[in-house]
């Protein structure tokens, strides 16, 4: 096990703490405070709107955790999308006022609540002035682990791919929003009639480093219950919409303004082709898939042709395979500032342990940073506690969410 610099363990009695997803840096710009979630129970499987988590600020050097607010709009994987607004001393997170879903801005420097933004947020651009949003109600219905509990349904929620719903640009300065890309638009791109009856939803919006483009998934569940992902990119104003990959598409991070590292199967792979034709729930594919899922990660990645690759969004045929012989399973990557390495993790292995690692981009070599044991209850898909590694502002320390103590806690360790 690695040596920790600091952790939330023991600071608040029996309470649990977690950050959320791997695409958010929880440190403020001064690299002194971390924005985190605090929970009384960390094994709530069926969340309701009566289940709240605290919005908290952790000062590792002072060994203090201060509570700011609470919210019942959260999930174990991505929290409340709690994040620092760039170029400010404020945080923002999703919240519910009565049955209205909003995002709340709190100025940490002045210790006061500021704007209530009339739409929840997912991703903020580098300027801190605008954000991307989508329907958390639709997400909560179609992919419960990533949605919020008991939200009111959208008026168009029963539609397969409504023209009135999709990805919204949220102006955080003027508190306005507009639809950039609708579900109806993406539905028509590369449309396949055998998928027409499956309700679509958007997830994982992400701006490139300079904010000139963003990418996202359009997703749906197929007849066999598998999650099918279509990976899109567009200019920041919603123009230039392109489908760049589809099938099994998973965790990613921008390498630069035009290239993305992503764990995926190439669109033209055999399994993806069978998936597109709606064959995976039929004999013999159903039996083959069941067998593949039982294999160890190394064999599974070879059988399914899954690996990390860098996609050039300006030339989707110009892929670069990344560390295929070293990284043999899906993880949660986050690049260092100079893009010379990325931090990554694994899911629990057969012994119930997760690995934290650094991957060097020039040599595709791996440095293991340690192994974390996962108690049995956290190996449940709905309760899982992924490490979700994240760099600090100086790219010298890494924080993870880990359950090895028996409780979800946030840990900071040296990345060098």
**Mean pLDDT across all amino acids:** 92
The proportion of residues in beta strands is 35-45%
User: Termini, distance in Å?
Assistant: 16 Å
Per DSSP, the total helix count is 5
| Category from helices, strands and their pairing | mainly beta
What does this entry look like structurally?
The chain has 416 residues and is mainly β. It has a domain at 250-385. Helix content is 9%, strand content 39%. The chain has five helices and 28 strands. The chain has helices spanning 136-142, 183-188, 270-276, 285-293, 297-304; strands spanning 6-7, 16-18, 34-39, 53-59, 64-71, 83-84, 90-97, 100-107, 112-117, 123-124, 130-133, 166-171, 176-182, 201-207, 213-221, 227-235, 242-247, 249-254, 259-264, 307-312, 315-322, 334-335, 341-345, 353-360, 366-373, 390-391, 397-402, 409-414. Strand 8 (100-107) and strand 9 (112-117) form a beta hairpin. The longest helix has 9 residues, at 285-293. The protein starts with 5 loop residues before the first strand and ends with a strand. The model has no long low-confidence stretch (mean pLDDT 92).
